[in-house]
Design brief:
102 residues; Immunoglobulin-like; 5-stranded antiparallel β-sheet; 4-stranded mixed β-sheet
């Protein structure tokens, strides 16, 4: 049996956009879980190309594309960014979540 690859996503603590609500973790366009402050998620994946995004209401992270090999683990961390009120008054999604590889 082939070991599966693992995606790890950690939510850092701190203030910022959407900080009071859970962050939805979106893998390949599908919500796979939600994280509160200080929580992490581990999701088994098939090897190949994937996309990752984090959302909390109108606040979103950039969508990141990544490749993962068999038996590999990739890790990301997310947190809310400080967003000026001018940008939150609009109806469009706001890039208020930081998502980075660890």
């Amino acid at each position: 049996m082939m070991a599966s690859s693992i995606l790890r996503v950690r939510r850092r603590t701190g203030a910022g956009a959407g900080s009071s609500r859970p962050f939805d973790i979106v893998l390949d366009g599908t919500v796979i879980g939600a994280l509160n402050k200080g929580e992490h998620l581990e999701e088994p994946l098939e090897a190949g190309s994937h996309s990752l995004q984090v959302r909390a209401g109108r606040f979103v992270s950039p969508e990141l594309a990544f490749d993962i090999d068999a038996s590999e683990t990739v890790s990301y961390a997310c947190r809310g960014r400080l967003v000026l009120p001018l940008y939150t008054s609009q109806r469009a999604p706001v890039a208020g979540i930081d998502l980075r590889s660890e």
